[in-house]
Amino acid sequence: MSRSFPVAFVFAALLFAPLAAAVAEDAPPAAGDVPKETPKTQEPAIGWSLRNVDPEQQQRMLRFSTFTNRGIPEAYLKAENDVGYTVHAIAEGGPLYWAHCQKCHGDTGLGNGDLAYALTPSPALLAYMVQQPIAVDQYLLWSISEGGKQFGTAMPAFKDTLSEEQIWQIVAYLRAGFPDIEAAPAKKGGAAKTDEPDLD
Ligand code: HEC
Predict the structure, then answer these.
(1) 31-77, pLDDT tens digit by residue?
(2) CB of 193 closer than 6 angstroms to any ligand 1 atom
(3) Is the CB of 136 under 6 A from ligand 1?
(4) In this structure, which of 23, 30, 104, 122 has its CB flanked by the most CB atoms within 10 Å?
């Protein structure tokens, strides 16, 4: 009897719920009527999402939200890309990418360079990243110049290593889809830098 009681109760509750609701419509809801599962306070959307994603994604999202909240130096927000996407810029950017970025972000920006596996969070998948709406010039310039120190990531800051022009050249190379630049010295050398079979 004790086992069937809850079932019968639930059944009865289901049957009478519409009726009870109809009756309740007349009376103003009492303060104590709020269902238990309703959260008492509505959390801000960003707080909710940050708590529900894994810690690695949290760091990435922090980078995104810092940028979208304009929490970056004004100079980056105002920066203009005066290098553009010329063949020349892409050709200059290729070797720079190979010299400074490939060991973490991988040959074609898939985040699988030799150093990648030791890093948490892992290097961004730049090939996909540059296609995201957030990846405007100013976002990329800021991320590459300042690195990930403020977010506790391994992304180095390049503002003292590369000129702004060189960073724009790398951006051109990323946006061009990581083309196989003949002039990339590391690629020409082949075997030393990659495990892939030499196809030519
Ligand atoms: C030592 C490894 C390492 C090197 C070298 C490196 N990166 Fe990164 N990079 C990372 C890691 C790890 C992240 C992810 C964490 C973060 O966003 O700070 C990252 C993130 C980024 C982001 C932000 C992506 C996003 O999703 O918002 C950009 C852009 C980027 N790197 C570009 C570059 C470029 C261009 C170079 C070369 C000039 C470079 N990185 C060199 C490790 C590296």
Answers:
(1) 556 556 655 555 555 555 556 677 777 888 899 999 999 899 999 99
(2) no
(3) no
(4) 104
